[in-house]
Amino acid sequence: MTFLEQLKGAERQNGSLLCVGLDPEPNKFPAGMKGDASKIYDFCAQIVDATADLAIAFKPQIAYFAAHRAEDQLEKLMAHMRRNAPHVPVILDAKRGDIGSTAEQYAKEAFERYDADAVTLSPFMGFDSVQPYLKYHGKGAFLLCRTSNPGGDDLQNQRLASVEGQPLMYEHIAKLAQGPWNLNGQLGLVVGATYPAEIERVRSLAPTLPLLIPGVGAQGGDAVATIKAGYRQSHGATTGAVIVSSSRAILYASSGSDFAQAARQEALRTRDLLKAATQA
């Protein structure tokens, strides 16, 4: 199956728009694991097992593994998700943005070494930085578009005088991703939950692309406003998937031995909140 087909299947099977972000910080682990980077796999695997029937996707953030020399644990975790949650696609959150042979190596890392179903990318070096990933047919690539951090205004919210209509930069990225860059229907966009008006604008410019929306939970994004801004249906089917990511609120719902069950309860609460918003 292609990444988009996997998304549709997970949304249907798990009744979910929730993406569980895997950002392991050993200092936040529960007692018995706290501070021990060798337990990254054990911690994340238990979160995956507790939420595999509640998620539309999993999203491991590569820096949280690489910073602790835990790339081997990430490989092990990816294999674990393949075995234990094969119906849930995995988005490798890497935000790569280089070009040429370097981009080819990053694409190989994401799709061959880690066997991810999709990857996040920075498009600010242009189409050259995206094209190598599109050679992996069936895989997905999410381009940073309107991110949730305040500093996103420094570039993303600036008007492009040299482009017809003088769009804001994030609007221009959305148009490129919906149009000429989306050669094989593989692209999606990253839009932060803290900017629901911008989510709605991106959705109007990119009506069929999947939107990866971080910022719900610990970052303060409004889950209901997010769904209303980005979720659309036609004849009972989702048009352009919405993937709402929550990481810390789920991972660290408890600091005790019940951390996996607490993560499940928080994921269940968020999934149901998002589901209810689609019907509001």
Q: Would you give an account of this structure?
A:
By secondary structure, the chain is α/β, with parallel strands linked by helices. It has one domain (3-278): Alpha-Beta Barrel (TIM Barrel), CATH 3.20.20. The chain is built from eleven helices and ten strands. It has helices spanning 3-14, 40-51, 62-66, 71-84, 100-113, 131-134, 169-178, 196-205, 223-230, 248-251, 259-278, and strands spanning 18-22, 57-60, 91-96, 118-121, 140-146, 187-191, 211-213, 233-234, 237-238, 242-246. The strands form two sheets. The protein has an eight-stranded parallel beta sheet with strand order 2-1-10-7-6-5-4-3. A two-stranded antiparallel sheet has the order 8-9. α2 packs parallel to α4, α8 (196-205) runs parallel beside α9 and α9 (223-230) crosses α11 (259-278). The two termini are 31 Å apart.
Short précis:
This protein is of the alpha/beta class and 280 residues long.
- For the record, give the distance between the C-alpha atoms at the N and C termini, rounded to a whole number: 31 Å
CATH superfamily placement = Aldolase class I
Structural class: alpha/beta
Number of DSSP strands? 10
Query: Overall 3D geometry?
Result: globular
**What is the average of the pLDDT values?**
93
Helix content range of the residues, please? 40-55%
Second CATH tier, the architecture: Alpha-Beta Barrel
Strand order within the widest sheet? 2-1-10-7-6-5-4-3
Unreliable runs, pLDDT <50, ≥5 residues? none
Biggest β-sheet, characterized? 8 strands, parallel
Count every helix, treating DSSP H or I runs of 4 or more residues as helices: 11
CATH class: Alpha Beta
> How many independent structural domains?
1
Strand content: 15-25%
Fill in the CATH topology. TIM Barrel
For the CA atoms, what is the radius of gyration? Answer: 18 Å
